[in-house]
Every structure is written in C-alpha cells, then in structure tokens.
Write a structure and sequence with these properties.
heterodimer; A: mainly alpha; two-stranded antiparallel ribbon; B: Fumarate Reductase Cytochrome B subunit; elongated
Chain lengths: ~130, ~350
C-alpha cells in the first residue's frame, strides 16, 4: 500500500531532524578558547570573590550591586576578606571593566559560546568600544 | 497511597540517586556521562523505527474514520468538510489540527451527576483543563527541547537565539539577601513545563476515575519529566553549573569526541541520566504517541466509505463467479425454464 512509502518518508525526516546536530558537527567542532585574563587582572591576582564562585555567581553579584547602587546609593562593596571595592561596572579604573579591560576576550567569549545575552549592555557601554 | 504511583516514584527516585552517585564517583562518570547517553540515543532511534514500521506493516482491513459531522452526500445537505473529511486535503487539514491543536482532546467531556430541578441527572460537561495543560505541556517541552540545541551548535543558530529571547522575555527577577532568582534570566517555558506536568500528575491523583485507570506506566514518564525539569531548573537558577564546561562536553558528545566536563557535580549527571532513561524508555512506552498520532486510523482516513470501496490490500485474490458469468453459463437453460434473464443473447 502506498501509505507505507509515506510512513517511511516521515520516519526518515524525523530521524534526519533527530541526528542533524550530529551530522552538522561531523566536520569537527571549533574548540572553545578560554577567556583571556587581562594583564591588570592577572597582576591583581584576585577578584571580589574567589574565581570559582565568580564563574557561576557573577551575574547575581552584579545585579545586587546594581540595586545597591541605584536604590540605596551605596557604592562600596566589602567582600568576605574585608577588602573594599567600588561597585561599578564600567566607570573608572576600579570598576569591573577597569580591571577586566578586554570585554571581547573576557566577557563575550563565554557569553557568545553559551548563547547568553546579558542585558548589561542595554544601558552600559564598554568604554573602549566608544573610543 | 497507591502502589501505581508510589512504584513509579520510587523507581525515578532510585534512578536519581543512582545517577547522582554515578556523577559523584569519578570512576562511573564515563558510564553515566558518555556511554549511557549514546546507548539511549541508539535505543531511541532503532526502537522508534521498529515501532513505527510495525504499525506500517499492520493491516488496515476497514476504513474506520470517526466522524463528528455530516458526511458528504446529497448536494443540498451541507457536509462538514473537516470533521467528516471526504478528500485527501480535508484529511490533511484535520490531521494538522489534530497534531498542532489536539482537537480531539479539545472535545473532552466529563460525565457527572448533577442536581437539577428534576432531580439528580447525568450531565456531560465540557472539560477544557486537560486540553489546556496538555497543550501547555507539549509546547513548552518543545521549546525547552529546541532551546537545548544551543548546547549542540557552535555558533548558536539565530533561530535558537530568537527563541531564547522570546522565552526569556518577561525578565522576572527576585533579589533578596537570602534568595536570588532571575539571573540567569528566567525562561518561562521551563516554569510552565513543570507546572503543567505537575497538573497532569495531580489530575491522575485527585480524580478518582482517572486514578483508577492510571498505571505505573502513566506515572513513570510524568515523574521522569518532572525530575528532568526540576534538575534543569535547579542547575540553571539555584545550584549553578559551569555552563561553558557543559557546552564543551555536549559539543564533544555531538561530534563523537566526548570528554567529561571537570568540576560538574552530580546534579548534571542526574539530569542527563534521566533524559537518557526517557529516550531509552520512549519507544516501548505510551510516549510513542509522538509517532502514533500520525498513524491514528480514526483520524487519517477519508470518510468516503459510501462513495469509494475500501479494499484491504492484504486480501489475497479470491476467485469469484459473478452473476454475469453465471448467466452467461446458464442463459439458454434459464430461458428454457422460463427464468428471467438480464441479457437475452
């Protein structure tokens, strides 16, 4: 019966869609290049919190910072070691981007790879990109 | 307490524990992270094909379309083209509505005794919530599935990014000193998926009639999907994982050069193991309605039984002796005996 041809076509299409990611990547994948730590960040040796925590928590830290600065007007962050930091993403040498002065190689590399679009840049700019 | 859902729940819980231990024990990571997922995909593909081809081989001796409307007959009687499809195109339209909108489920009714002025009477109510939950469940599951393609393509295709944009459109955030939710941005599909699957589960628990006809095989996939959704949500919003490390791992899987991620905890292994179990379980379970819906004979056949004869294609040829042949053979004798004949020489 001709239904069989139709069913086989359907199954082939389904299986093709299913294994498409495998077929697409048959030619090998581009290896992920780790984000680069700027010279300044390297020299500083530590961020506001340990690296591993920063890796997974930075977005929340930044968001809490934003609320603290905008709503409470406080600009100083004290970490668990008692060190003080200016809460700012992009303004001045003591801001996040002041130390990590290579947004494209530092922020964007992971974000692009994992398809994350942080809305930081809806309001903020990378000072370097303007110049 | 009901043995049917308790059994399923305990099995899923055991699977979670097993894979958690597997993820935490370095020696078992290869098994749970690489071997089992590959095996699950192979089982899924071959199981799916064999199941559908089994259906394709089975006979369709009769036309059994169900009708919900007037069949095409006399020119002055208005036919219902979709609910009683007469042509192939109408069948296609009916199937699209069935697959995309779950139209049969939309007609779901509930029978119950109702107090009326004339006493207790049986009444049939339109029951839409199952349809709403089913629609929400299936579509959010699809979106979640498509969103996960970001782990299998580099660079991430634009259409996936668009999907992520609209999925995370609401930008729900809740920040306090104790609990912080909302970063990374909340995907509404994940939340609705968990809510819908919970509804579908509670329906089986709280409706006595549905509970009675529910088997472990009904609860098991629900718990499995619940587990997948919960572990996914946990990883994304609460415990947090090294997403770049995981993408490197999934890209390795999909390009057949797998390498285990470092520093990724047991929860990720629970997630990937439950997905593997779901994939491997799929072909032998009720979940095969994914393929089965296309082959539902009450939906995908034209309702033209009075106009066209349906011949079972598996009928072996039967030797027949028609009346015409009979008359040809005995005409002279019939005329002699005075019997009426249709053709007189």
């Amino acid at each position: 019966m001709n239904d069989k041809k139709l069913i086989i076509t359907g199954v082939i299409i389904f299986i093709f869609i299913l294994i498409f990611p495998f077929l697409y990547n048959l030619g090998g994948t581009t290896e992920f290049i780790d984000p680069v730590l700027s010279e300044k960040a390297k020299a500083a040796k530590f961020c506001v919190v340990p690296k591993e925590d920063m890796k997974v928590e930075h977005m929340q830290i930044l968001d809490v910072w934003r609320d603290t600065v905008v709503r409470k007007g406080e600009r100083v962050y004290v970490n668990s070691d008692g060190k003080k930091f200016t809460m700012s993403l992009s303004t001045g040498e003591n801001s996040c981007l002041g130390c990590h002065n290579n947004k494209a190689e530092f922020c964007d590399r992971c974000h692009d790879y994992a398809s994350v679009r942080p809305y930081c840049w809806d309001c903020h700019t990378d000072p370097k990109e303007i110049k | 307490m009901n043995v049917n859902y308790m059994l399923s729940f305990i099995i899923v819980l055991a699977l979670c524990l097993l894979s958690y231990l597997g993820g935490e024990a370095p020696g078992l990571r290869y098994l749970f992270g690489i071997a089992i997922p590959y095996l699950a995909i192979v089982i899924f593909i071959f199981g799916f094909i064999s199941r559908v081809m089994g259906w394709a081989r089975s006979a369709v001796p009769f036309r059994i379309p169900t009708t919900c409307g007037q069949q095409k007959s006399l020119p002055w009687i208005k036919p219902n083209r979709i609910d009683n499809p007469f042509s192939k195109s109408a069948v296609i339209l009916r199937m699209i509505l069935e697959i995309v909108c779950f139209r049969s489920l939309f007609r779901n009714t509930r029978m119950a005794f109702k107090n009326t002025k004339t006493g207790m009477r049986i009444a049939y109510d339109w029951e839409i919530f199952l349809w709403v939950a089913a629609l929400a469940f299936h579509y959010t599951f699809l979106v979640v599935l498509l969103r996960h393609l970001r782990f299998f393509f580099d660079p991430v295709p634009f259409c996936i990014q668009i999907l992520e944009f609209f999925d995370g459109f609401l930008k729900i955030e809740f920040l306090s000193n104790v609990i912080q939710v909302g970063l990374p941005g909340i995907y509404i599909s994940g939340v609705i998926l968990l809510a819908a699957v919970t509804f579908l589960f509670l329906r089986r628990i709280f409706s006595p009639k549905v509970r009675y006809i529910s088997l472990p095989a009904d609860f098991f996939p629900l718990f499995l999907i619940m587990g997948i959704a919960i572990t996914g949500i946990m990883m994304r919003y609460f415990t947090k994982v090294d997403i770049v490390g995981i993408k490197e791992f999934t890209m390795g899987l999909v390009s057949f050069s797998p390498a285990l991620p470092e520093g990724v905890g047991g929860l990720f292994y629970v997630h990937i193991f439950l997905v593997s179990v779901l994939l491997a379980y799929f072909p032998s379970s009720k979940l095969m309605h994914l393929g089965g819906i296309f082959l539902s004979p009450t939906r995908n056949m034209t309702a033209d039984t009075r106009a066209t004869r349906h011949v079972n294609p598996w009928n072996h040829p039967v030797k027949v002796h028609t009346y015409e042949q009979y008359e040809d053979e005995f005409r002279e004798k019939m005329i002699e005996a005075g019997l009426p004949v249709e053709k007189k020489e």
